[in-house]
Amino acid sequence: MTGGSWPGYLEFPLEDGVILAADSYHSSKRGRTQGTILIRTPYGRGQYGAQAGAWQRAGYDVVVQDVRGRYGSTGEWHPYAREGHDGAATAASLARAGLLRGPLVLAGASYDAHCALEAARTLETSGSAIRAAAVVAMVPALGLFETARDPDGTPRFGDRIGWWHMHGFGRESAPPLAPAELGRRCRIAAKQGPEQLVHDAEYGPGARAAWARLWSAPRTDLKARYGRRNTPLLLVSGQNDFFAAEALAMADAWSGGMTGLLWGPWGHRLAGDLDAGTAAELRADGGLMARIQDFLASIRNGTPATESLEFSLAPETGYAWLPAERDGLLRRASTSAAPHRVPHETQSVPAPVLLPRGEP
């Protein structure tokens, strides 16, 4: 692993010759750190300065890495194929280089959450001496089937056509499809099947095969894959996220359901979906970062929190974090998410509110 200019540039050579590129940021708490956050993303690490800054101000070192085949990292990009292996290898490299200051926390939103979950699973199952202290998975996009279809199997044509056009094939993200063109492609997919939409001539060699793999992928057996995990997990989702049901299923599957859950009236962009008044109340309470810090503090104290909390409107006090029943959250999510769905191509990097109290 080699370094460079600030923010610290790191390269992670893998055993197959691939080199993964990353930026590192030191905690802004002089001389001490709460731990090291690892975020792995296909969306370009250069867009993550604000998220890294929120973690820095909370006292963490941060490493943001481009996944294999994207932006500064070499290799071939195959969504959902190697994130466990590459994430675990990155964690091991950080440890060997002495760059893990404090406990390792794997974090991310949307696809980045998948990277975090898979890295934690691989570290546990591979015999590695390195373990993550915790995973923070926000609005997770769990797998090929789970992103391509609703829980009942209905295809998510708009979301997937848009996302894969932007992010699924090239080394860097492409501009979004115009709404009229996205609509046209959705109509073709509904009438003729989605396989007709992607050709190597437009997106490059292997694109059609990758697109077919998406639509033929089996449902992930979450309990079989994640049920025996021991790494503490905090899931963050909301009633208007179109992956809400999958997040709740993961909360019940991981470690036999011994997970923490934060819920709120947002969608896939988290606080970016809130009206100004509700967002202000969330910020006044410390934002999501305050609750995430509570969870990580519970791990340091040896008693990982496993409660479910919902940021909801209380009759007399306004918005507050209240205990929640997961079954009730699922019922509300199943009826509220669809009207608020926004084509996924507009949400390449979710914007979670992580700012602590008093930050602008």
Tell me, what is the CATH class of the largest domain? Alpha Beta
Q: State the assembly state of the protein chains.
A: single chain
- Give the low-confidence spans: 344-348, 355-360
Largest sheet: 11 strands, mixed
Report the β-strand fraction as a percent range.
Answer: 15-25%
CA-based shape: globular
What is the third-level CATH name, the topology of the largest domain?
A: Rossmann fold
Secondary structural class: alpha/beta
List the helices and strands and how they pair.
Layout: E1 2-3, E2 8-13, E3 19-25, E4 35-41, H1 49-57, E5 60-66, H2 83-96, E6 104-109, H3 111-125, E7 134-138, H4 144-148, H5 157-168, H6 179-192, H7 200-203, H8 207-216, H9 222-226, E8 233-238, H10 244-253, E9 260-264, H11 276-284, H12 287-300, E10 308-314, E11 318-323, H13 326-336
